[in-house]
């Protein structure tokens, strides 16, 4: 297993290299640059700024410099937020996005699994239809609708939650954004769980367990659930990578200083270094979480062996 | 003599399934009883309701099924019991083993864990005591090295071993009744014999009653005291096993007893031309390997096999699962990469690529085991059987193709109107006829038949065997007949190759192999087959 993890981490290096290279040149293909938008900079000042950041070098040299810096863990300065380096921006924002994402993910996995199991056990009965209705609503109502509704109902009308802001990470400030982030995921997990649980409950070894007179609790929780959880495990990898790297919509609506906004803002402002930093972070999260998922798979299912 | 005590009595049991097409009655008011310590067989073909009867008794019906009537165990109706009362009977007093040893154990838990759970549940032992009991049970069912096997997972064991573990689980709490639902059907014939011997031995030791649900009259004859014959959800005949076999009353029972494929195939003339020849054919599979993963494991599935199939000849390739018989068939058709020399007619096709093979494909056809999976559910039967013509005779008009479809269907004994219907409307035997029509419409010279009768009921098998023999006689076909079923092979083939672990252990004309098998393995196969699963009315 250790050998497998090592092999996966080693193969991540060329993957990252390809992603970084593609992102580097793709963003340069987009017209414009960090200092030539509607700011009315005089050509001299612009030339100075570009010279300062090395943007007047040939592209291949810039690429070589960037790679060299990246290898030393230096993401470079942000062009649009010149007081900060990209590393500093992530050091401040990433923990916030990770906190929100992790809470949302855990909530989604717990609640979604329970709802999906309830639906499967009551297949084609009232409980099932209620969960399906909830799941359909959860996955069709967009977050930019859910978030303002939560702000309106819980913030403005009932005054139970703050309307926005991070409040230095106070629990009450997290409830709104976490709910908004979690709701669509709950819906997806519930539907996945329902499907795999129905299949699991029909499998032959569940029939065996019932024939042996095991209690419903053991049949459902010990035997059916463990088999049904596998699709959820594979779903968790990409979902975690997406949730933990922040959501531009949720962070904007609730005024949360996370990193979700960076990708969109930076891309629009041609803040090359920040875009690249975001790409690297998201790629790393995706690679690592997919690896964790594959390892978890082997833990849950003894038939999966990687060596 | 005291009358034996009746411990299970099924009275007026009805089982109904709600389906989209309305309610379907699978069991129509049957009466069955089981006495302490006896062996009862419930016999019938697929769809007879024999399994659903016992599933209903154990409350294991699918969620759209419902059972009415009485299933009384020592005077208490299992159908009306509360779930917690029922769970004190299931797995303790009445236990059950199933047809599917590969999937009936939970793949995610170790054998030990799965054995210990019901022991603790029913007997209230602590973990250490239950573990001791589990070890005892594994020894009882002759699992070698039980200490180590406790930690094994189901996928690490063979089908036969898994069925032994199932039996151990079923016997864990010293049941009154063991219900065995086709316990050996999915196993190789030598393993079948071992499992049945084990069950008989355990019954002698432990004295429980056994209810065999089976389609296999060999098992019934060897093991059962009393027999119920079921058909379309009703018991059509019942009685003492001896008497029933000696003097069957109902027409259906008589038909079942006579359903063994009969007849033999005469060898082709000595000067018949060789159609297909393989010399030193070898197929090797690579397992694993890749970046940093070390050397791949090489598995030789077919090991230096030479074969000569003449025109109008049938070679039966016999072997148990994993012997490489299907792989050999595919390699000879160049559907798998192989080493060695393969000649078809006067052409060397050893290295022919897909393109070069295409014109030859119409002359070499393949019929598969699974009549349910091998026909596209979204095409009409007519489209299914004429698809090959589109490739091989592209100049035919739609009308001509339709005419050919009619001829092909008539030839395999189906109503030509079948061509406008979809495969799911047909039974297993009819679908196999459609699959044969699909091969025959191209007027092939060679047909590889890969277990074409194994998924079918005995009475249907017999018809398919007769059809295949007639087609062979009419068209001078050559068959490569791959099967684990010796009775069918005997009726089909004039020459037999016995395979084990990729190698030929014995070959020769059919009657020689059957009357005087030389290799120890062939003898084991024959004995197991004749001993257990074959029954001849005349014997």
Describe the structure.
Chain A has 307 residues and is mainly alpha-helical. Chain A has a domain at 93-300: MetI-like fold. Chain A is 75% helix and 0% strand. Chain A has 12 helices and no strands. In chain A, helix 1 runs antiparallel to helix 12 (272-300) and helix 5 (126-140) crosses helix 7 (171-201). Chain B has helices at 50-57, 83-89, 111-123, 127-140, 146-149, 159-171, 189-206, 217-223, 241-246, 251-257, 325-332, 354-361, 381-392, 398-411, 428-440, 458-475, 486-492, 510-515, 520-533; strands at 6-19, 22-35, 39-43, 65-73, 76-77, 94-97, 177-181, 209-214, 226-231, 234-240, 274-287, 297-310, 314-318, 339-344, 347-348, 364-367, 446-450, 478-483, 495-500, 503-509. In chain B, strands 6-7-8-3-9-10 form a 6-stranded mixed β-sheet, with helices on both faces. Chain B has a 6-stranded mixed β-sheet with strand order 16-17-18-13-19-20, with helices on both faces. Chain B has a 4-stranded antiparallel β-sheet with strand order 2-1-4-5, with helices on one face. In chain B, strand 9 (226-231) and strand 10 (234-240) form a beta hairpin. In chain B, helix 13 (381-392) runs parallel beside helix 15 and helix 15 packs parallel to helix 16 (458-475). The longest helix of chain B is centred in the middle third of the chain and has 18 residues, at 189-206. Mean pLDDT of chain B is 89; it is low at 532-539. Chain A binds chain B through residues 3, 6-7, 10-11, 123, 202-205, 207-216, 218, 222-223, 226-227, 300-303, 307, and chain B through 58-60, 62-63, 83-84, 86-92, 95-96, 98, 100, 103-110, 117-118, 121-122, 153, 155, 166, 169-170, 291-293.
């Amino acid at each position: 297993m250790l050998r497998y993890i090592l092999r996966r981490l080693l193969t991540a290096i060329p993957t990252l290299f390809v992603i970084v290279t593609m992102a580097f040149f793709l963003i340069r293909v987009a017209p414009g640059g960090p200092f030539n938008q509607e700011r009315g900079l005089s050509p001299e000042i612009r030339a100075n700024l570009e010279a300062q950041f090395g943007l007047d070098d040939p592209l291949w040299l810039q690429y070589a410099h960037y790679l060299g810096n990246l290898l030393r863990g230096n993401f470079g300065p942000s062009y649009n937020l010149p007081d900060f380096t990209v590393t500093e921006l992530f050091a401040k924002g990433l923990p916030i996005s990770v906190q929100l994402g992790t809470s949302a993910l855990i909530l989604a996995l717990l609640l979604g699994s329970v709802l999906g199991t309830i639906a499967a056990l009551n297949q084609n009965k009232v409980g099932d239809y209620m969960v399906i209705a909830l799941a359909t609503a959860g996955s069709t109502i967009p977050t930019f609708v859910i978030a303002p509704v939560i702000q309106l109902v819980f913030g403005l009308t009932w005054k139970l939650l703050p309307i926005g802001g991070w409040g230095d990470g106070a629990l009450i400030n997290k409830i709104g954004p976490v709910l908004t982030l979690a709701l669509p995921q709950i819906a997806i997990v519930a539907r996945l769980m329902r499907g795999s649980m129905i299949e699991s409950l029909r499998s032959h070894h569940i029939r065996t367990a019932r024939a042996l007179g095991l209690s419903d609790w053991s049949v459902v929780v010990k035997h059916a659930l463990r088999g049904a959880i596998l699709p959820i495990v594979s779903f968790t990898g990409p979902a975690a990578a997406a949730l933990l790297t922040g959501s531009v919509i949720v962070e904007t609506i609730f005024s949360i200083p996370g990193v979700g906004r960076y990708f969109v803002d930076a891309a629009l402002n041609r803040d090359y270094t920040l875009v690249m930093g975001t790409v690297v972070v998201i790629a790393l999260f995706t690679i690592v979480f997919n690896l964790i998922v594959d390892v978890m798979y082997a833990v849950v299912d003894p038939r999966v062996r990687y060596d | 003599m005291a009358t034996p005590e009746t411990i299970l009595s099924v009275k007026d049991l009805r089982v109904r399934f709600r389906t989209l097409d309305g309610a379907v009655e699978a069991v129509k008011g049957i009466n069955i009883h089981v006495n302490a310590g006896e062996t009862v067989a419930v016999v019938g073909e697929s769809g007879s309701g024999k399994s659903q009867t016992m599933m209903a008794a154990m409350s294991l019906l699918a969620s759209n099924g419902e059972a009415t009537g009485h299933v009384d165990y020592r005077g208490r109706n299992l159908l009306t019991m509360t779930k917690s009362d029922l769970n004190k009977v299931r797995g303790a007093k009445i236990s059950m083993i199933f047809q599917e040893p590969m999937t009936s154990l939970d793949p995610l838990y170790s054998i030990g864990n799965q054995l210990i759970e019901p022991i603790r549940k029913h007997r209230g032992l602590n973990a250490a005591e239950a573990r001791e009991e589990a070890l005892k049970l594994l020894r009882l069912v002759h699992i070698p090295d039980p200490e180590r096997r406790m930690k094994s997972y189901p996928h690490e064991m063979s089908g036969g071993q898994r069925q032994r573990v199932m039996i151990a689980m079923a016997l864990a709490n010293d049941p009154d009744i063991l219900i065995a639902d086709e316990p050996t059907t999915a196993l190789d014939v030598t393993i079948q014999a071992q499992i049945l011997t084990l069950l008989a031995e355990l019954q002698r030791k432990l004295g429980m009653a056994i209810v065999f649900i089976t389609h296999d009259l060999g098992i019934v004859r060897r093991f059962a005291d009393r027999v119920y014959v079921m058909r379309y959800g009703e018991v059509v005949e019942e009685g003492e096993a001896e008497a029933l076999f000696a003097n069957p009353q109902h027409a259906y029972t008589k038909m079942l007893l006579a359903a063994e494929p009969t007849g033999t195939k005469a060898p082709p003339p000595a000067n018949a031309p060789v159609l297909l020849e393989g010399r030193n054919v070898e197929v090797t599979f690579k397992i694993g390997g890749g970046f940093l993963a070390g050397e791949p494991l090489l598995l030789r599935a077919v090991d230096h096999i030479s074969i000569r199939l003449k025109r109008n000849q049938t070679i039966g390739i016999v072997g148990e699962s994993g012997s490489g018989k299907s792989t050999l068939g595919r390699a000879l058709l160049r559907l798998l990469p192989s080493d060695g020399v393969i000649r078809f007619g006067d052409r060397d096709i050893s290295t022919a690529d897909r393109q070069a093979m295409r014109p030859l494909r119409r002359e070499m056809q393949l019929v598969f085991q699974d009549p349910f999976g091998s026909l596209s559910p979204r095409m009409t039967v007519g489209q299914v059987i004429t698809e090959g013509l589109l490739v091989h005779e592209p100049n035919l008009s739609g009308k001509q193709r339709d005419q050919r479809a009619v001829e092909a269907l008539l030839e395999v004994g189906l109503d030509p109107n079948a061509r406008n219907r979809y495969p799911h409307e047909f039974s297993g035997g009819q679908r196999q006829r459609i699959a044969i029509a699909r091969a025959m419409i191209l007027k092939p010279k060679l047909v590889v038949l890969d277990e074409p009768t194994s998924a079918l009921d005995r009475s249907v098998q017999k018809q398919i065997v007769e059809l295949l023999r007639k087609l062979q006689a009419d068209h001078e076909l050559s068959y490569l007949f791959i099967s684990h079923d010796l009775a069918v092979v005997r009726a089909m083939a004039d020459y037999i190759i016995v395979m084990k672990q990729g190698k030929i252990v014995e070959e020769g004309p059919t009657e020689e192999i059957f009357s005087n098998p030389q290799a120890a393995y062939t003898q084991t196969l024959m004995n197991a087959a004749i001993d257990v699963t074959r029954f001849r009315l005349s014997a």
